Amino acid sequence: MPQETKSHVSLSPADDPIVPSGEQENLEGWIPPLASPEQVIAALEKAFGYRGDVSIHTRQGQIIEGYVFDRGGNGRGLENCYVRLYSKGSTEKIRIAYSDITRLEFSGKDAAAGKSFQTWLKKYQEKKSAGETNIRIDPEEL
Prior knowledge:
- The protein is an alpha+beta fold.
- The protein is 18% helix and 23% strand.
- It contains 2 helices and 5 strands.
């Protein structure tokens, strides 16, 4: 049984989803191209790091929305690689072969967008510079 932790699928350096500024990309609403196996792998790698729901369209005509928590495979073709997600509104775990995916949408709100320590520090410094005291930056409701 696969381990349900965030593991690594190797990508080429050009596909690395890390943004140089230290901030994660804002992928919310993005529909990546899936024309080649490399694009499918890169898009699903980004979906794995995304802190929101994605919608996956399958060859069978299903649209499955949920949170990607695992992916894996032996790397020998898309039919041997898979993604696992928790179905939205349920604890059901669904496994989908990469080869069955026809469309991917980053449909849910990214709960981590704009929430880096650097962003928090910048807001804190702005409030402090404005002369505010008892500065408190509360987390936003999910």
